[in-house]
Amino acid sequence: MDLNGRIQPGSVKVGTKQTTKMVEQGKATMVYVAQDADSRLVSRIVQLCRQHNVEVTFVDTMRSLGKACGIDVGTAAAAVVEE
């Protein structure tokens, strides 16, 4: 995220499926997870991040994570990827 609380466009994949895919492929450099997300959705992502040594940062809400990613809806997870 930059100083305005936004993740740089084009460098992020949004959603649990895309985040999982990026971690599994070794493309994720950092993962953001919303603390209010369903633990069944994000627990696998957190576990994968530990296995692949990817840093996980927790944010307060799905809504704030979605806003930081530049979308109008909330998201449970987002991955910053190598360009």
Automatic annotation (TrEMBL):
Boundaries of each Ribosomal protein eL8/eL30/eS12/Gadd45 domain copy?
9-82
Q: Which Pfam families match?
A: Ribosomal_L7Ae
InterPro entries (alphabetical): Ribosomal_eL30-like_sf, Ribosomal_eL8/eL30/eS12/Gad45
Q: What SUPFAM superfamilies does this protein's entry cite?
A: L30e-like
Superkingdom of the source?
Bacteria
Name of the protein in question: Ribosomal L7Ae/L30e/S12e/Gadd45 family protein
